[in-house]
Amino acid sequence: MAEGANNGTRRPRPNLLITGTPGTGKSTTASALAEATNFRYICVGDLVKEKNLHDGWDDQFECHVINEDLVCDELEDVMEGGGVIVDYHGCDFFPERWFDRVVVLQTENSVLYDRLTKRGYSGTKLTNNIECEIFQVLLEEARDSYQEEIVIALQSDTIGDISDNVASLTEWITTWHGTGSPEKC
Fold first, then answer.
1. Which is an annotated GO molecular function term of this record (predicted)?
2. How far apart are CA 154 and CA 139, in angstroms?
């Protein structure tokens, strides 16, 4: 492919989306990658709370109902410059042109269950997130929302996996040229 995933827009540095089911290590991976690359790290969940980019609280899932339009409006200018790592458990509402790499973190179900119960997840919220991981909902969402060649799935069961993922993504960033990207991370 001659042009990058951002439809030919020339940014000096790529943008990455780190997505996956809650508990897969998105924030840990994204913040470590930002530190390793000196990229800007944006956790959408924190941004939603800080800037009130939501339409209220969902009692069943114990979280804010984000206003996707407000989030996109808030991020538009930041994304144009490149060098941004976005962390969020969904991906289908972000403009495709924003990202040069979409990383879907995946975690083995028993590991994920333990992580989520330690966070206090229970009932519907716990069940829903485990089922999302079992059925690879976020991987399918990413594949449906972005060009196939920019979407990669990475295993994130251990601290070693996270370190390996950060190292391979850092390597990908250093070889990115703005007109396309290497085939594999």
1. ATP binding
2. 10
